[in-house]
Amino acid sequence: MLTLTQRSESRRVKRAEQKLREFGADVVERIRRVEPPKLSVPSRSTSNIIYDEKSGFYTLGDKFGMRSAANVRQVKKFAQMLCAADFCKSLITSEKFATLREMYYTAEGWETGSFSDQAESNALVEDMEAAFGLKREDMGLMPEEDGAAVYGELVVREGDVRIDATKAGRAGYTIPPTIDDVEFLKCGAKRVLAVETMGMYHRLVQEEAWKKFNALIVGLKGQAARATRRFLKRANEELGLPVHIFTDGDPFGFHIAMVIISGSAKLAYINHELAVPNAEFIGVTASDIVEYDLPTDKLKECDIARLKQLQKDPRYNSEFWQTEIKKMLEIGKKAEQQAFSKYGLDYVVNEYLPSKLH
Amino acid sequence: MLTLTQRSESRRVKRAEQKLREFGADVVERIRRVEPPKLSVPSRSTSNIIYDEKSGFYTLGDKFGMRSAANVRQVKKFAQMLCAADFCKSLITSEKFATLREMYYTAEGWETGSFSDQAESNALVEDMEAAFGLKREDMGLMPEEDGAAVYGELVVREGDVRIDATKAGRAGYTIPPTIDDVEFLKCGAKRVLAVETMGMYHRLVQEEAWKKFNALIVGLKGQAARATRRFLKRANEELGLPVHIFTDGDPFGFHIAMVIISGSAKLAYINHELAVPNAEFIGVTASDIVEYDLPTDKLKECDIARLKQLQKDPRYNSEFWQTEIKKMLEIGKKAEQQAFSKYGLDYVVNEYLPSKLH
To 10 degrees, what angle do helices A251-262 and A301-312 make? Predict the structure, then answer.
């Protein structure tokens, strides 16, 4: 069987285990030298989050802080990080995954004392991701939710199981939280067509858009989950597929696309594994609303405020986005992707998408 | 290949087509007799929603209203219903499905004039469901969202595609919005274990709880979607599987279970197709919180108010529920299903669930 992608998972896991071991060894070594154990952690504060024009996504600058067991205010946090690293190592060794919430509850049994709330244990995991240069998934921590639905000519392997994304049912193959564990075996598609709503996803599956456009149809279910973004990144890099994003014509839809393209500021420390800077927005624009005479809703106060924010956001600093945002503010209207049904259920597949994809 | 279930879908679709034809024929006949066309629609107002002790779920009483083309205030609505019925007939004939939102936008092209908002077109669909005794899905209208994830020994057929729910990937087989279109081919499981969160779903899949309990693991993703409820109903009736529901120990979790068991008041007109009155709650109770010494959160004001509502809700009128709700109010605490990880990730599979399932 042709394996398109290397089993990158085992390399990832080995690297994660190695990083955790190095951390442990460093702590032991410092204790032997009668020095306080410490760890340098890149700062995730706003002042250290930088939009990297060249790579096209948010990344961290070079500021960092020191977590030290010698600092009374940090000693509990440092001890918790040791316990968390140990927990992750045992996950890796036993080939298990746990959710952030399970780790939070597991900490009830740690000698260091438990976390006061989950925000605290989540922040600790983010510290570890930034400090070790690992995704939490590489350390055995998985997101709570599944990723998007995928339909089209893609065959993958999860463990011993081979899955054909045209034979997993109408609802498609669901991207698991453990996406880096998935091997791409075979891909007949030439592009990815990611759509915001499951309504549109089912429309495209029903109209056989995956055949017509030779595409993997991805149903994002709104804002893309981490696993979905990682899938899109891998499809783009490993399979060489261009990614097209079809969203509603409103500020929320624009941002769903932009987070896939340029990443979020909050995940700046990990965007190099998630962002797809060459992904293309083919969602509904203000120009489309006018040109197709679409059914619309009036922009709400919050839409207007959000659009004005986007105008100043460095990720939207291109002629295309500036023109379209300005135009949407002028016409004062937004439109959903399903609005094309005004012209019949298959209009979106027969007219709109072919025109957007050239 | 053994087909466990009759191809009920074709019967359903034929019945729906028949009902729509009868409606059309009746309208034509009345016009021929120079009478105004009209339709009797069961009332969905609160006063006509009755908790049926015997069947164990909410249902409609025998009040009804008359929609008449002779009434100036109803004529537009009546004409829209004719267009909607025609739209549904064409969906059935072309073997397509559309979302409620697509129908709303399609109505932009109707001669009757469009709907002022989607709430209006949704209400019209509910009128049709109640008047014709059909689910919207039978008329070709599908929910926007997919249903739950299923993992375990179940083989289904969707069209030409055969899907094994142990071979669809770790994220499982996704129940499609068109669940009545799915045939059950083979089932090796003896029960259904439906869990509230995807975190718990993935825990149970990972710990092979589906083997251990001979169960279909269903990940509800919070409040169960229509397609999920229909799946559970069919698994219970057609496959004869008992349904066990494992939720968080809080009023929201209780209600997720209760809506599966006894249906919602809002869908009283269709609960006979969705409710699973013999499903069993095995979620976290106030007694479990005490007995297992679980990590808890304090009840919020809104939790307390909600619990007090549940005390008066006829669906909770049993000794078990009254005792547990009272106890939860007394201890003032709630707990999540993942809280068992305090005792290790596999505790829930090795201890809690065996004890609850006897």
Answer: 30
The pLDDT tens digits for A309-350 are 999 999 999 999 999 999 999 999 999 999 999 999 999 999
Q: pLDDT class for B49, splitting at 50, 70, 90?
A: very high
SS3 label, residue B25: helix
Q: Do residues A288 and A348 touch, judged by C-beta distance below 8 A?
A: no
Cα–Cα distance measured from residue A37 to residue A301, given in angstroms and rounded to the nearest whole number: 52
Whole-Å CA distances, B34 to A264, B71, B72, B74: 65, 15, 17, 18
Alpha-carbon distance values, B332 to B243, B290, B310, B324 (Å): 29, 11, 15, 12
**List of residues 6+ apart from A70 with CB closer than 8 A:** A36, A38
User: Which class is A8-142 in CATH?
Assistant: mainly alpha
Separation CA A160–CA B205 (nearest Å): 15
Q: Give chain A's end-to-end CA distance (angstroms, integer).
A: 35
The amino acid sitting at A75 is V
User: Residue B1's pLDDT is what?
Assistant: 42
Question: Residue A64 carries which DSSP code?
Answer: E
Nearest to B202 among A159, A163, A177 (CB): A177
From the CA of B288, how many Å to the nearest CA of chain A? 16
Report d(CA B231, CA A351) in Å as an integer: 36
Per-residue confidence at B9, pLDDT binned at 50, 70, 90? low
ipTM of the complex: 0.91
Six token digits for residue A307: 């659009």
B168/A contact by beta carbon, under 8 A: yes
Minimal Cα distance from B344: which residue of A?
A106
Whether chain B has a CB inside 8 Å of the CB on A156: the answer is yes
Q: Where in chain B is the domain with CATH 1.10.10.10?
A: 8-142
Nearest to B246 by CA among B274, B268, B213, B269: B213
- Nearest chain B residue to A106, by CA: B342
Please give the class, per CATH, of domain B149-356: alpha beta
